[in-house]
Amino acid sequence: SKPRDPHLTFLLGTALHWQQSYAEAVTAYKTAINSLPAASPLIPVRLWNLRLAYLAQHGVYPGNLEPRYRIASLPAAAKAPNQFTDIAEHVGVATLDRGRGVAWADFNGDGDLDLFSVGIQTQHGLFLARNDRFLSTASAAGLNDARGGWAAVSADYDSDGDIDLYVTRDAWEGAATNSLYNNDGTGHFVDVATAAGVDDPDDSFTAAWGDVDGDGWLDLYVADGITGSGAANKLYINDGKGSFTDQAVLRAVADDGKSLGVAFGDYDGNGDLDLYVANVAGPNRLLRNEARKFRDVAEAAGVSRPINGSYVPFFFDSDNDGDL
User: Which Gene3D superfamilies match (predicted)?
Assistant: First the structure.
């Protein structure tokens, strides 16, 4: 029998959604929405899932959908100095691929920014800039990987002058290792994660590149354990020869708070990279780089909150005084 509780009904809808029973999922989502008070903070989440189910079923959002099932569109701010217009379809990047992470970089070395995208269990997208359009080239570039991914971070980790890619996988739809796609300089990529020692199997969410030991080679910090394993994060130190070694425990950055976001930045201005880690199952961490090890100073610095629920962090100079 179907559950009557709105929360259980919503869970039923998500289960049907994952099973690709989209019509049944739509019905369950609508039932869950109807069972909630109009002012419930859960309504926007339920509406979003309903929208995704409709898109998966029909490829479009029904124009005749009843108002209570639609996500309200807010009017543009007429006085805003800058406004944005969605041109994805016009330039050739409007793909429905359950998208997650993206990375902008000049992947083919022609001076123009290209776009790489990943989605859940779907082929990657690599879109090379061509005048005012983008050309889909993932297949020709060797990026046909049906496992998809969650986050994508780009960097020239081997310092050969071209941009490489690291893709994380979170295991919500089955265990999978991460990928390190090495750019051979011609715009073709090969997954070298296993050979390089960074094929992390511990349900990773995101990652960040940074030279933490000051040797001129980019290292890699990976946020792990978001699903069942609860594994601690990894800090892969680059040996400059194409291989990495996990030194998270050695350098005191093996956070096990189910991290959803990580960011490097020299917040104290001493010339080395520090690390901020946002956790969903514990306090956030501000890990100060003290040469051979890091020390958590988040509580003392007043940046450990919110507890149990942080997502994406980043460093920036909010008051333009030169400090992050």
Answer: Integrin alpha, N-terminal
